[in-house]
Amino acid sequence: xxxxxxxxxxxxxxxxxxxxxxxxxxxxxxxxxxxxxxxxxxxxxxxxxxxxxxxxxxxxxxxxxxxxxxxxxxxxxxxxxxxxxxxxxxxxxxxxxxxxxxxxxxxxxxxxxxxxxxxxxxxxxxxxxxxxxxxxxxxxxxxxxxxxxxxxxxxxxxxxxxxxxxxxxxxxxxxxxxxxxxxxxxxxxxxxxxxxxxxxxxxxxxxxxxxxxxxxxxxxxxxxxxxxxxxxxxxxxxxxxxxxxxxxxxxxxxxxxxxxxxxxxxxxxxxxxxxxxxxxxxxxxxxxxxxxxxxxxxxxxxxxxxxxxxxxxxxxxxxxxxxxxxxxxxxxxxxxxxxxxxxxxxxxxxxxxxxxxxxxxxxxxxxxxxxxxxxxxxxxxxxxxxxxxxxxxxxxxxxxxxxxxxxxxxxxxxxxxxxxxxxxxxxxxxxxxxxxxxxxxxxxxxxxxxxxxxxxxxxxxxxxxxxxxxxxxxxxxx
Length: 478
What we know:
Blueprint lengths: L3 E2 H8 L2 E4 L5 E2 L1 E3 L9 E4 L12 H6 L4 E5 L4 H14 L12 E5 L2 H13 L6 E5 L4 H12 L5 E3 L7 H8 L8 E5 L7 H9 L3 E4 L13 H8 L1 H4 L5 E5 L5 H7 L4 E5 L6 E9 L2 E6 L2 E5 L4 H16 L4 H8 L10 E4 L4 E5 L5 H13 L6 E5 L9 H13 L5 E5 L4 H9 L7 E4 L2 H6 L9 E5 L7 H14 L2
Parallel strand pairs: 4-5, 5-6, 6-7, 8-10, 8-11, 9-10, 11-12, 12-13, 13-14, 18-22, 19-20, 19-22, 20-21
Antiparallel strand pairs: 1-3, 2-7, 14-15, 15-16, 17-18
Helix pairs in contact: 1-4, 4-6, 4-7, 5-11, 6-7, 13-14, 14-15
């Protein structure tokens, strides 16, 4: 991060300077009092588990040059000991000339975004924003992999895709950075709009519109409108859209500038052909390019196409794309094939929603195996009033696919079993477990030669099941 003045922060946040010199310069911003650096500025954010205001004294003790507090902060409880500490360390109490900076704003979370937006304006560089119901993180990582072969790049780590994660990513911008690449997530209307106001993207990608976070919306049309908020920020920028998605016409109408398309079924600017699964991943053709990647799933073809569309906008050649993608490493917990001594696991525990679940089932059905195709299914979160119905429909889908054995975990996942059995899936091939531990202990689930898909929402912690099974296999193979 490049240096900022307190005056700039005050201008961007419309905050009130309670103490300190507005000419003071800071070199980093932190939300974690344990990770403060020299000349850092601490922003006290209120979260579900912790309130940053409780760590103000610790932040100053660790060397924070200043802090931002919100208007709900109660001076009578917190401020006296804080100011006593500041006075002991040259702060001088509440006065403009004090060395320790204290700024008050209405909302510290919003102030963080406002500072990030102001800081972003310093850098006249392309910024790519990626959103969608599925495939955001994989598409972002693929695009970053391609672009970093030629450009100095900043991207958000993992799925740091909310206002806090985006803001902290933008603070990584500095002289010499040529491109920024960010993922944008949401679970209610207006969030993508806010993230776009902060990031000011020049190119936007919408991977698809599905049923992720459906519980926060009346219908899928509402999800599509929320994703389309990204397009509203691209006054002259390029939009990259999935032509196969049912909401493509809706999204295209809302794009203000150039539109580039990708897809498999419909004729697109980047259309995949001759797709086939191979032992180590997937191969296909797109335009004049033949590709083979260590990724599994037709759904990943869409992610690859979107990333290639981004790369071509930056004039990266076909030859370079082919060379770079060959070395892409699959992301942990994203349909990750793990070959164990007796059977194979597919770790798809990163997250889940109805569309992603169906895509995973379709790919499992295509894959070759010596034994059974087994699904271990936990709950899909954030579906609200649609939860029971969507779990039931996933079960029906499983019954219509080439799946041999089904394991469900949790109350809502029981609806998956109900949907499967009522659609003709044999009841003796359905096992319901109350906990992840019960799954690991069950011997009838894991037979030699089986191919086992483990899938559920991140909140269900199915990655723990995968790790325990891997550890068991290591122990039995010693």
